[in-house]
Task: structure prediction
Amino acid sequence: MLKAFRFRIYPSECQKQWLIRNFGCVRFTYNHLLHARQASYKKTGVIDYTLTPASLKKEYLFLKEADSLALANAQLNLDRAFRNYFKGRAGFPKLKSKKNMWQSYTTNNQSHTIYLKGDQLKLPKQKELFKVNLHRPVEGKIRSATVSARYNEQFYVSLLCEVLPVDRSGSNKRIEIAYDPEKLVKTSFPVQIPVPPFDQTAKRLEIAKRKLVIKGKSAQQRKEPVYRAKNYQKQKRKVMDLYLKQKCQKEDYLEKISGLIIREYDYLFIEESPAHFTSADFSLYDWHKLLMKLQYKAKWYNKTVCLIDQKGFSSPFLGRSQKRERISRLSGF
Result:
C-alpha cells in the first residue's frame, strides 16, 4: 500500500530560488497545455493531445532547467482533470495562478534519484542535499516526492512510499465510538486527548477579520485598490495565518485521536450516520474526516472497523447488553 510522510525542509538560498523557478515552469507548462486543449476543444469539439512538455521545451528553452518528471506530472494532472470533467466528477480545468498561497510540484523516484541520507534529502536535478526535519522514520520504498511551498517562504516535502501493512492486532479489545458535537468523539471507554484551545484561535481570528474590514474601508476612502494597500495585505496575511493555524489544530487533534484509538483497540464499532447539530464545535465534516482516518489506519495495522446504523439503537451507549448482542451479530464475533 502507499503511505505519505510529510516533512519541513530548509533549502539554501540557491535551492530556494531553484524550487521557485521549478514551480513556475510546472505552472507555465500546465497553463500552456490547458490553453491549447481549450482552443482545440472549442474549435473542433475534440481535445488535441499532441502538445506535450517535450515539444514546449523546443520553443521555451528555460523549461530545460526544470525537472522533466515534474513537467510530465503536470501533463498527467491535466489529463486527470479532463477525465474528471467529462465523467461529471469536477468542473472544467482552471488555470493555475502564481498568486496562490501554495505552490507545488511532484517528481518521481527513478534509479535512486530521491533518497534520504541522515537528515538530508536528495531531489532530482539538484546535487546539493536539502536539510529535512525528520520528526518520524520513513518506511518502505520512496516512489515520488511532492515539494510544496507556502508564500514561497516555508517549504515542505511529502514522500509517497510503498509499504507493507503491519499487523498490530492481538489485544482483542473493542470500543464503541459515537459523534459528540463538543469533543468530536464519545467512546464506551475513556480516551484522554486534550482538546486544543480552538476558542482562543477563533477569538483572535474574529478580531483579525474586523481589523481587515477596517483597513479595507480605509483603503476605499483613499481610493486605493486593496491589492496595492500594504496595510490591508499585511492584515490579510495575518487572517490567512490564523485560518491555517485553526486548520492545523483540528487536523492534529484528528490525528491524535485516530492514532490512539487504532493503537489501543482491535475492533472499532462506529456510528455511521449521526444526527446533525447546527451549533457545534465539531461539524459532521470533521466526523467524516475522522472516520476516513480510522478506516485507512485500520487497513495499515490490520484492525477491524464496523459501521453501525444509529437507527438500530435508542441511544449511543444505552441498552449495553442488547447492543453488544446486536454488534456481535453484525460483525460475526
The first strand starts at residue 2 and ends at 10. The longest helix spans residues 230-264. The CA atoms of residues 193 and 256 lie 7 Å apart.
